[in-house]
Amino acid sequence: MAGKVIPIPPFDCVVFGGCGDLAERKLIPALYHRQCTGQFTEPSRIIGSSRSSITSEEYRHFAGQAIEAHVNREDVDSSQVRCFLERLSYIPVDVTSSNGWDKLKEEIEKTSVKVRAFYLAVSPALFGDIAMQLGANSLITPDTRIIVEKPIGRDLSTACVLNNRLGTFFSENQIFRIDHYLGKETVQNLMALRFANALYEPLWNSNHIDNVQITVAESVGLEGRAGYYEHAGALRDMVQNHLLQLLCLVAMEPSAFLDADAVRDEKLKVLRSLAPVNVHNVGEHTIRGQYLAGISAKVPVRSYLEDLGKKKSDTETFVALRTTIANWRWAHTPFYLRTGKRMAERVSEIAVTFKPIPHSIFGRDAGQIIANRLVIRLQPDEGVKQWLMVKDPGPGGMRLRHIPLDMSFASTFSGRNPDAYERLLMDVMRGNQTLFMRRDEVEAAWQWTDSILESWEKTQQPIYGYNAGTWGPPRAVSMIKRDRRVWSNLV
Predict the structure, then answer these.
(1) Does pLDDT of 64 surpass 50?
(2) N or C end of the chain: smaller count of CB under 10 Å?
(3) pLDDT tens-digit map of 276-334
């Protein structure tokens, strides 16, 4: 049964960077899909903005091409496309100067719509300038929201500077720091599995769980992001935000209510309870890697240095690390995080391995008894698998097999699975911050991550090469093997 669609109040959504890659691939398709469900109420408008001196008609053509390129053909309805494009207009604005702001203000004030959402799909270096110009041009009202993409800084100090600049013009409940992973249906289902079922929560602790593994593997390389990635690396790009947010949802205590601050309070407690990684243990608990030339998707690909056009780089394209959480629920339970580019396949998943049974009543002929695992697949093929031991059908004694109870979202729920940006954009318009990062969360994550970055620099932590199309450096396998465990994809 399809979920009930709840219309949202009329809004004006201004997309700075409206002609950019994010707007083309994600924002325009997401807003189009939400219109098709009947979620918009009149007179909702979408206003694109950038330095480009194009007309509104040319912008509608750009948006139409984005829908054609990034929306499945069966979801393209000509009447809906026509209606959607009629909502669009375009105002050229130079966000680093005063040029164009008067025309943007004039366009916004044509209607009495209360909710104003400003999406900053631009370089983080421009976030402060835009916030200042919005304030200077009296475009901020009590019902205004500002949406910012990662990275929120490149370390704790720069994150604090950026948060302070945004906070000068916006209150905390108006700032929506977006992490698209939190909008994925499977991620939200993690909370449903834990807190809406009696089955898991009594077992969700160190007494019953042996380890937790979070993997976000990409098969692609730099994909046109060489300049950004060389100055970021895998730890800043993925671990500080995506992976730590997933860890928080796995490890957090139940909140009293499904309320934005109640949920984020519990996530903050997790971040502040992470065991520190410092100069004394960084070599034991972290592995850095950089992809070499190899075979990816059966096609020869270049090394990171060749993609970058450099002879040397100290930027990691792979990170594996081990941490623990210093509280009663998770004491001594290791959490293994792993992310990388040019890996064997594109997969994001959370694997929760339960402790083995204390005693087997079965003989050797039954086969090996493998510990139960709960695997939550975020992408691709979203779904949940609970791996169990069962009897192999047939006569001839007791033979055991390790098989999954499989809940594939595609087969269980009819219809299209909405993209994360669809959910998050609608939450912005509603003013619901549950799936967005609060300032103290961002800064706590940076504080923990900074310690790793500083320890790498002080200890000259080596970067190990790994062939493209593999699961990273062999040292990452050795790291987890020291604990007598294996990565979930190798089980």
Answers:
(1) yes
(2) N
(3) 999 999 999 999 999 999 988 788 999 999 999 999 999 999 999 999 999 999 999 99
Strands 373-379 and 45-49: what pairing?
A: unpaired
Q: Are strands 209-217 and 463-467 parallel, antiparallel or unpaired?
A: unpaired
pLDDT at 1 over 50: no
Helix (H, G, I), strand (E, B) or coil at 213: strand
| C-alpha span between 67 and 87 (Å, rounded) | 14
Give start and end residues of each alpha helix (H) in 258-387. Answer: 260-273, 282-285, 304-308
Highest mean pLDDT among 188-192, 247-251, 404-408: 247-251
Give the rounded distance of the alpha carbon of 450 from its chain centre: 20
**Cα distances (angstroms) measured from residue 86 to each of 43, 59, 476:** 11, 11, 52
Q: What is the pLDDT of residue 490?
A: 60
Nearest to 347 by CA among 454, 488, 204: 488
Q: Exposed, middle or buried: residue 372 (CB in 10 Å: 0-12, 13-18, 19+)?
A: buried
Strand-pair partners of 118: 14, 146
**Is 5 in a helix, a strand, or coil?**
coil
Which of the two residues, 227 and 347, has the higher pLDDT score? 347
Report the catalytic residues: 242
Over 394-444, what HEC string results? Answer: CCCCCCEEEEEEEEEHHHHCCCCCCCHHHHHHHHHHHCCCCCCECHHHHHH
Q: What angle do CA 461, 466, 467 make, to 5 degrees?
A: 165
Task: Collect contacts of 189-192 with beta carbons under 8 A, ≥24 apart.
Answer: 189/376, 189/384, 190/249, 190/250, 190/350, 190/376, 191/249, 191/258
The pLDDT of 441-467, averaged and rounded, is 96
- Does 491 have pLDDT greater than 60? no
Give the Cα separation of 403 and 386 in Å (integer). 8
Q: Is 354 exposed, middle or buried (0-12, 13-18, 19+ CB in 10 A)?
A: middle
Which has the closest alpha carbon to 31: 93, 90, 85, 105? Answer: 85
* Secondary structure tally for the chain: helices H, strands E: 17, 17
pLDDT beyond 80 at 482: yes
